[in-house]
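Sharing a chain and its predicted structure for anyone who wants a worked example. Both blocks are below, sequence first, tokens second.
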Amino acid sequence: MSTIQLLKKASQMVDELARIGQSTPAELAKVISEPRPTVYRIVAALEQAKLVRSAGDGRLELGTAILKLGDAAADALVDRAELHSQLRWVRGQLGMSAYFCVLRENGAVCLDQVEGSDVTLLDLAPGRTIPLHAGAASQALLASASAEFQAAVLQSGPYGRIASQTPLTAEALRKKIEQAAVRGWSVEDSEVTEGVASVGVPVFRRDGSLLGAIAVAGLRGSVLGHEAIARQTLDAAAQAITAFTAEDGANDARDTAGSEEPQGSEREVPRTPAVIAKASALMAALAEERIATSARLTELLEEPVSSVYRMLATLAEAGWVEQIGHRGAYRVGSKLVALSGEFSRRADIRRAAAPILRAIHEATGETTFLCIRRGTRAVCIDRLDGIRVNSRVLQLGESLPLHVGAAPRALLAFEGRESWEEYAAIAANTGEPWLRGRSRSEFYAELEEIKEQGFVLSDNQVTPGIAAVGAPIFNHRGEVAASLSVSGMREGLLAPPDGDPIAELVVRGARALSDYLGAPPFPAANDADVFRAIVDHASPA
């Protein structure tokens, strides 16, 4: 097998893991039609690059490097931080799920989403692809796409039914596109998800080329009848996105398979799985640069020009790299956004946490919890009861507000000040005495202390006589994804133990789960600091 074929097989293997989920090397060997020794060599190289990883029981799954490349693909198109800020603003104005999509030949790819207050729309999660024949975002994109692109989509009909109002014929879709083009925005009802409606507007670069579409979606009763307000809000956000988006003049729907003609012989390309390592380094460099010419990549990699050209051509054919225009610069392909979405969709924090919860439970005999945030509350998604004392609070599926206890405050404290203020504003409107005599500044100071310490100590805050320790679990962007906690009688939980401090066990467990989600290194208290905090808290004043 040539080195280029080997690289193609490697990308095919990653695609298959995204498509079918966890698989053994033997299963992958059948899918890519290669002998097991070759597959094992490819797997070893992909594992080293963190593009795949072991899932246990001899099975493989997508690796955390996919997440970073997915973010890089989005960053090459639009500033994600600014985009996310605009989506949060839209959600704040309308209360609906807000999302942003870009046009690709296989559909509208969602780059980012902020969940609304009524429902979680899984079809709109980052990395998911919405079919081009359905949904407000798709129709807003098609209405602003080239005539050739529109014609190709219309010629691909009839279309599959997704929900009761999905356009099924080219004529039905043509009318929707024409209506969106005249209005400058689009609206749909029950085309993608039954009972859900959406409104979308196109977003353009400063040079007038199509960048994507920003849209909102929610239960049809909250959307229909309010289209004008939604459109005005989305128009304002679209203009803000245009203002911070760089011009590149590229038509993102075009075929970007790479048009540069490689020079040199096949022998100049690295042999065997070494080419996978070289290709991984190329992808990492491209992710760092966001957009780079082949000359710049050759300089960064210190590889022969012909080797870089061949790798770029192969990666472009696989969809991992996109070329901007004819013989233009390169960026990470939007396909990586979809692969990243598959990683996130398949990542099972509950499954990964089970052995950690069990290990802490066996070491301490105390109740262990795994929680995630839903709105203004921390929801328990897994729990092991203590063997001596078993708190009735936070049973499986139950929740607590984010300002009390260990697990809830671990979810809130490690977010930004903006999230604290948003939560405080919502909590103040409930009419409950949630601050318990404290001022907001004192509450924020408490969260700052927790953030600096790296974990949470809760003593007599939820149940008299019960204490708890909680620590945050981060995702690949350094955002809080979940929290791990232990609770028990305060005398046993806070007193200096003979073995490892319970807080140390919790912090280590949370770090392991953060690694599972691909989190970057995050500053946290060292073990001595953890022990000292426990001793100081337990000591009488």
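Comments welcome. Confidence is low (pLDDT under 50) at residues 249-272, 524-541.
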